[in-house]
Amino acid sequence: MKLVKLISILALTVGLLWAEPINLSGKKDGYDVNLVSEKSLVVGDNIFYVTLSKDGKALEDAKVKAKFFMPEMPGMPYMEQVGKAELVDGKYKILINFSMGGTWQYHLMFKTADGEVHKIRSSVNL
Ligand SMILES: [Cu+2]
User: Fold this and answer.
1) From CA 27, how far away is CA 45, in angstroms rounded?
2) How many domains does the chain have?
3) Within a domain: residue 99?
4) How far is the centre of ligand 1, averaged over its atoms, from the C-alpha of 49 (Å)?
5) YtkA-like domain location, by residue (predicted)?
6) Is residue 113 helix, strand or coil?
7) Which residues fall inside 5 Å of ion ligand 1, going by CB?
8) Quick one: which of 53, 122, 121 has its CA closest to 92?
9) How far is the CA of 18 from the centre of ligand 1 (A)?
């Protein structure tokens, strides 16, 4: 029992040390959405890049923003960070500052030229 515990602690530690950058892909309303982080996530500044495409064609005229938030917890208020993207070399670049480790939920929103707002909900850990 102790050994199992030790192994899982080791596995967790290695997992944290070797945390990979985020790379998430999905589809929303016919758009292909990819979210990557420049590096593995840290407390402090993090840079995310979002790419959007439809039917294999890159979409570079959307308005993109992301909201990362953590619900209120005992002894801790609700926390939120909103980042507005700027288009850099075909990618939407977003700066997010995480004030603490843990699980951050996010809403990734993009407004397309037709005025529609599309929203993806997920979460990241750091
Ligand atoms: Cu928290």
Assistant:
1) 27
2) 1
3) yes
4) 24
5) 27-108
6) coil
7) 70, 76
8) 53
9) 23
* Distance between Cα 65 and ligand 1 center (Å): 21
Q: How far is the CA of 32 from the centre of ligand 1 (A)?
A: 30
Count of CB atoms within 10 A of residue 104's CB?
22
**Cα 96 to ligand 1 centroid, rounded to whole Å:** 15
Average pLDDT of each block of 10 consecutive residues along the chain (126 residues)?
63 62 94 96 97 97 98 93 97 97 96 97 94
Distance 112 CA to ligand 1 centre (A): 32
The C-alpha atoms of residue 104 and residue 106 are separated, in whole angstroms, by 6
Within-domain flag for 114: yes
Parent domain of 62: 21-125
Ligand 1 center–CA 98 separation, angstroms = 10
User: Is the pTM higher than 0.85?
Assistant: no
Phi, psi of 58 (to 5 degrees): -65, 140
- Take residue 42 and report the two structure tokens written for it: 């840290």
Buried/exposed code over 36-68 (b: 16+ C-beta within 10 A; e: otherwise): ebeeebeeeebebbbbbeeeeeebeebebbbbb
